[in-house]
Design goal:
- By secondary structure, this protein is α/β, with parallel strands linked by helices.
- Helices cover about 50% and strands about 15% of the residues.
- The chain has ten helices and six strands; from the N terminus they run E-H-E-H-E-H-E-H-E-H-E-H-H-H-H-H.
- Strands 2-1-3-4-5-6 form a six-stranded parallel β-sheet, with helices on both faces.
- Helix 1 links the parallel strand 1 and strand 2.
Length: about 210
C-alpha cells in the first residue's frame, strides 16, 4: 500500500509515517499543507492519503476541502481524515462527498496501529470508516419523540456499528453475533426507522448517517 501523509505538525507527521513504514506501508510523501497534498497526489497518485482536517493557512477545514477535491479528481484514492475533536457534521460531509473510499478518525486512534491500518485498508478498498466516538454522539442526540427509542438495545448496537462502516460480518465480530442474526436486527431496525435497505455497504452507511444527523 502507498500512502501520503499530510499534517502541519512535523513531529506528528514524521511519527505517523514511521508507524506506517514499520507496518510495511510505503509513505511516498510527507507534506505540511493542503496545497502540497494536492500537488503530491497529482504528481504520483497513492492508494490513500491521511490528512489532518485543520491545516494552514486558516486551520479550519483545509484538510476536508482537499479531501473533497481528491474525491472529484482522484476517486480511486482513499482518503482518511484525522481530527483532534469529535465533529459529526464534518464526518458526515466527508462520507457524503462521493469519494471512492473515505474515513474520519480521531487522532487518538493513531495510537492503535491495528485500528489505523485496518481503516486504511477499508478506505483503499472503497469502504467508509467513521470513528466510533462520532457515531456515539449522533446516536446519543436527543429529539422530541426520538424514533431511536423504538429500537431494542441490540438493534441500537447493530445500527451504531453499521454507521462506522462495518459489514455484517464485521458487526457480527464486534458484537459476537452470527451474520444471520445481524441481518435480522438490521432489517428490524431499518423497518422501525423507515429506512430502505441499500444494495451495498456504503449506501447503507450513508442512509444510517443521514438518519442520525437529521
Amino acid at each position: 500500500m502507498r500512502v501520503i501523509v499530510a499534517d502541519d505538525a512535523a513531529l506528528f507527521r514524521g511519527g505517523l509515517a514511521r508507524l506506517l513504514a514499520d507496518r510495511g506501508i510505503e509513505v511516498t510523501a510527507e507534506v505540511g499543507n493542503a496545497e502540497a497534498l494536492l500537488a503530491a497526489v497529482r504528481a504520483d497518485p497513492p492508494d490513500a492519503v491521511i490528512v489532518d482536517i485543520r491545516m494552514p493557512p486558516t486551520h479550519t477545514t483545509e484538510g476536508l476541502d482537499a479531501a473533497r477535491t481528491l474525491a472529484a479528481e482522484h476517486p480511486a484514492v482513499g482518503v482518511l481524515v484525522l481530527s483532534a475533536h469529535v465533529e459529526p457534521h464534518y464526518a458526515v460531509a466527508l462520507v457524503e462527498a462521493d469519494a471512492g473510499g473515505a474515513g474520519y478518525l480521531l487522532k487518538e486512534r493513531v495510537a492503535d496501529v491495528e485500528e489505523l491500518t485496518d481503516a486504511l485498508r477499508r478506505v483503499v478498498a472503497g469502504g467508509v470508516v467513521v470513528d466510533p466516538s462520532v457515531v456515539a454522539q449522533l446516536v446519543g442526540r436527543r429529539r422530541v419523540q426520538n424514533p431511536l427509542d423504538t429500537l431494542s438495545e441490540r438493534e441500537r448496537d447493530v445500527l451504531a456499528v453499521m454507521a462506522e462502516g462495518r459489514s455484517n460480518a464485521g458487526i457480527g465480530d464486534r458484537l459476537h453475533l452470527s451474520e444471520k442474526t445481524v441481518e435480522a436486527y438490521a432489517r428490524s431496525a431499518f423497518t422501525k426507522l423507515g429506512l430502505h435497505a441499500a444494495p451495498d455497504d456504503n449506501r447503507r452507511v450513508l442512509a444510517v448517517l443521514a438518519y442520525l444527523r437529521s
